[in-house]
Each structure stands twice: as structure tokens, then as C-alpha cells.
Model the fold of this input.
Amino acid sequence: MTPPSPSESRLAALRTALCRGIPALLAGCAFLAAWELYADLSGIKPSILPAPSRIVVQGWLNREALISNTWPTLGATLGGFALSLAFAFAASILMDFVPFMRRALLPIFIASQTLPLVAIAPLVVLWFGFGLLPKILLVALVTFFPLLVALLQGYESTDRDIAELLNSMKASRWRIFRLARLPSSLPYFFAGLRISITYAVVGAIFAEYAGAARGLGIYILNAKNNFRPDLVLAAVVVSAVLTLCLFGLTLMIQRLIMPWQQSGEQRR
Done:
């Protein structure tokens, strides 16, 4: 029996993805249809609960403003996420190589996640101004902890036999880390990456709430103050689409870096 060609494998994977997505698509369409009927038949004012069709129309009419405010949010999201990724990776290596640093730093990092963002965001803006830096810092604060925990858990999942084999071959600590511990952490890392990227956009928008000149957070705040829930929800839709795109990008990167995992899923 000849193995399937790459094109056939891609088509099979696409069909599988579509079949898995159909229930969610049907549920979403049913929810939107019920919302549309309720908004049209109940007599509720659009200034209180706009119909989905009105949200789409007003979003399209105000697309230039939405797009111009999306770019600052995207910049803060990517900048903060890049800083979070670099910091989490460096901290995880330090804590893996030096157990004392893990005992010293991990409680501090856990405590940092208990800080309410609604309280810390205005202070960060006060300390660093209304530019891009405070947004980057707040996004990094929100997203680095899931990445750090995922990496540490991934290091601990290393097969002990592989580590002992490398150790018996007189491999250095760094070589064992590079050849065994780091590859073992990849599934955990990408799981943490997907969790963090969903927090990143929300963190950027919340940071803009605290103080910014442009961005989806400011757009939502201005629309709310002008009693335009249709524009508020249009901006929410844009932020949701942005989050889904970034989530999908992480999946693509995972499949490029870990193609063997995709092959295993197809066999199942």
C-alpha cells in the first residue's frame, strides 16, 4: 500500500479540520441568529442592545477608524509578547540550572500574578508615560507567567533514561539541556504560548484603557462614553479576530517546528 502524497495528506488534514469546526460554526450561527431575532422582535433600543447586523454595518462604515486604532494595539501586543517570551525563556534557563534561583524567584513571580491589573496599570502609565513602553510592560506582565510555568514543566518532563545516557557520555550540563531538556519542553512551551497569546491582546487593550492616545482600548472607551454599543462591540469583534489570528499563527509555528506531532495526530 503506497503512502499518501503530501498534497493528499494536506487535503485530509483540511477535511478533518473542517469537520471538527462544523459544530462550533453551527453553534455560533445559531447564537447570532437568536440574537438578531431578539433585537428585531423585542423592541429593545439599538443604543442598549444592537443587532449583529447593525454591528457589522457600523463596523464597516467606521472601518478606517477601527483599522487605524488596531495597529497600535497590535504593536503593543507583539512588543509585549516578545519581551515576555525573552524574559520567560531566560528566567526558565536560570531557574533550571540554578535550583536556588528557582526557590527564590518562583514565589515572587507567583505573587506578581496576584496584582490586580486594574490597580497596577495606572501606576505603570504614571511611571513610564503614555507611550508604547507601559503597554509593552503590562502585556509582558500578563503573559510571561504561563510561558515560564510551561517551560519549567517541560524541562521536568525530560526522559530520565535519555538524560542519564547523555550524562554517561560525559555530556556537559548545557549539552544535556540543548539535546534533551529543551526538546522535551516544546509541547509544553507551545501550550503555554497559546494561552499567553490570548491574554496578550486583552492586556494591551486594558493598558490602553489606563492611558493612551490611540488603540482599540481608547476606541472602546470613547464609543462607550458616546453611548455607541454597536461600535464598542465592533471593536470587540476586531480584537477577537486579532486574537484568533495570533492563535492560529502559533499553531502554524508549532507545526513548522514540530512536524512529527502533526503526523502522529493524523495517524490517530
Summary: Residues 149 and 192 are 8 Å apart (CA to CA). Residues 173-210 form the longest helix (38 residues). The mean pLDDT is 84. The two ends are 18 Å apart (CA to CA).
